[in-house]
Amino acid sequence: MEVTSDYLQWLTNEFEDSPFWKLLGITMDRLEPGEAVIKMPVKESLLNSNQVMHGGAIASILDSIIGVVIRSSRDVKVATVSLTTQFIAPVKEGALYAEAKTINKGNRIQYVESKVFNDKGEIVGTALGTFAIIKK
């Protein structure tokens, strides 16, 4: 399948209209075939008892960007098989930006690395994802 601008616009709407993305406040910052950046605001409802961004919220943006990157290069559905995360620095304010890079593009399983940055461009977390490719 050739990735068209119509497909990328549909995909943006597909993700941004999902209830989970709305809950977290995630939006598409940039989307091209095989490349994307998504944004998530640091908001009070996503802070933990230490008043920093909850690791689950950070893991969610790391997981989400992998799904976006895979689906931006091929018209498939995906499911997370495994997500290994590393939390590098706390975040208290601003916004987070995530991007991902494909390691291995398999037909049934795909491996992708993702990184999340703060407003200053500093890495605050990384993940290695194993994703199942589900044909439509």
UniProtKB/TrEMBL annotation:
Database matches in Pfam families: 4HBT
InterPro entries xrefs: HotDog_dom_sf, PAAI_dom, Thioestr_dom
SUPFAM superfamilies: Thioesterase/thiol ester dehydrase-isomerase
Domain Thioesterase stretches: 51-122
Taxonomy, superkingdom: Bacteria
Signal sequence coordinates: none
Keywords, sorted A to Z: Hydrolase
Protein name stated in the entry: Uncharacterized protein (TIGR00369 family)
